[in-house]
Design brief:
DNA Polymerase III, Chain A, domain 2; globular; alpha+beta; about 325 residues; five-stranded antiparallel β-sheet; 3 domains; twelve-stranded antiparallel β-sheet
Amino acid sequence: MVSGRLLAEISRSLPAQPVDVSVDGARVVVACGTARFTLPTLPVDDYPALPEMPATAGSIGADVFAAAVAQVAVAAGRDDTLPVLTGVRIEIEDDRVTLAATDRYRLAVRELRWQPERAGLSAVALVPARTLADTAKALTGGAQVTVSLSTGGAGEGLIGFSGRGATGQIGQRRTTTRLLDGEYVKYRSLLPDDSSANAYVETGAFVEAVKRVSLVAPRNTPVRLTFSDDQVTLEAGANDDAQASESLDAKFVSRDGSTEEFSIAFNPSYLLDGLGAVDSDTTRIDFTSPTKPAVLRGSKEADALATGDDYRYLLMPVRLSG
């Protein structure tokens, strides 16, 4: 047993040549080309016993799983004083899986299909978001990810993921982690049932415009969006500071037929996170009012619902003075 961190740093720095690993007494020798590293070993008895992999719950395509986790984990909290919000909630109902994460300012929800091990399976797990994201990313390139799950009392839940980490990799990569304990936010009640207006904007152009305008929005001060029938205008900056504005083509439809402009403001970093997670050339934004959360999603909603694959990113607006 050797230092994992040191071995990882050495591995990343090695040239693209074959690597030889050997044991020389109480040391491990790593050689690659003309580079040679001699590492002291650590007592094997000090290594904790690994938990057994729980019972298999089902499987899902590796690339689909990685994409879904990336879309949701971006909204997980990073405040360790609120551990429940640092997790991704996984809900399993037969052949449907729902992933959800929130930090109280935004909420990301992804629904998708998978292959359960048995019909009628129903389970819930709260997985640390950072661990889940790292694991999903490491397993891309393989065909399938197998999910194993056991739930018990407080602190006893365990989830495992296994699969080939990359095409041609020898053997399987397996990861297990303890589940987070605690009552999660009733997030479904936060998603609005209807909207009063919808906007459609080209995703790539919108992302670039938000990045440019937010250059004059220090410390994540808000970016204001003003929608009219055929365009959206982005504005940032205060009267006494640097200011920026930019307009883009957009389609804005009010359900009551109103032709009045609609203005709303968002934290630019949170807005960019949501736009980056939308897997569509066009982003649809559903509005209720300038002071209530908006929902970002791909424009091909009908196709998504037909396949059981849907992504929604709910974002709280920022109140503007004046």
